[in-house]
Amino acid sequence: MNVTNEDAVQSLAQVEEVMAKTRQSLVSTYAGPFLILWGFIWVVSYLGTHFFLMWVDWIWNISSGLGCIGTIFIFWRLFGRGSATRNPSDKGLVLRTILFWPLFFAYAFVWLSIVKPGNGVVLNAFLVTAIMFAYVVIGLWFGSWLMVVLGIVVTGFTLIGFHLIPAYYYCLWMAVTAGGGLLGTGLYMKLRWR
Asked: What secondary structure letter does DSSP report for 178?
């Protein structure tokens, strides 16, 4: 059987298309539920902070704790149904991702001890932009341009809110742009990337 150059190029294009769809499916499977969870938590927490500022510590501590429990539950569900354990390379990606986040937050707290932000808006802008940098890195790592764009866009909205929006409205701005951005992206992945 003779294979022409055209047949070989067409076959390689089909393989690349399947690889891209597989990568997209992996990102959707793993990132989508977490984006929905944390987007919802950010929307509720930012709105709670805006309307009940005196309870800001309680709001963020409780919502972050619930988010961590939800994150563990989602990981457990992903592993429990076997999708993360079928392919050995999936296990490696998931393990690196699991290890990445605690290390990232450890470094973020080290950086915070150095820069010592003066108020809650500065602290929040720092943490959100640091987390969005992590999204960009993970997007590059997994080959997901949507995650890269999400990180860059939410960072841009955070900078707009930090520099141009009056402090009184900052949390409303962040509820819509940051929380809504994560939530909307997660829903888009789950509904459109099936």
From this structure: I
Q: Is-contact 48 55, C-beta < 8 A?
A: yes
Per DSSP, the residues of 71-93 read HHHHHHHHHHTTTTTSSHHHHHH
- pLDDT, averaged per 10 consecutive residues of the chain (194 residues), comes to 70 64 59 93 98 96 96 82 55 77 94 92 96 93 88 98 96 97 92 72
- Distance from the first to the final alpha carbon of the chain: 37
Tokens of 8: 């070989």
Question: pTM, whole model, 2 decimals?
Answer: 0.82
How many residues can be counted in the chain?
194
Cα separation, 149 vs 155, whole angstroms: 10
Instruction: List, as own/partner pairs, every contact residues 145-153 make where C-beta atoms lie below 8 angstroms and the sequence separation is at least 24, other chains included.
Output: 146/27, 146/185, 146/189, 147/27, 147/31, 150/35, 150/181, 150/182, 150/185, 153/181
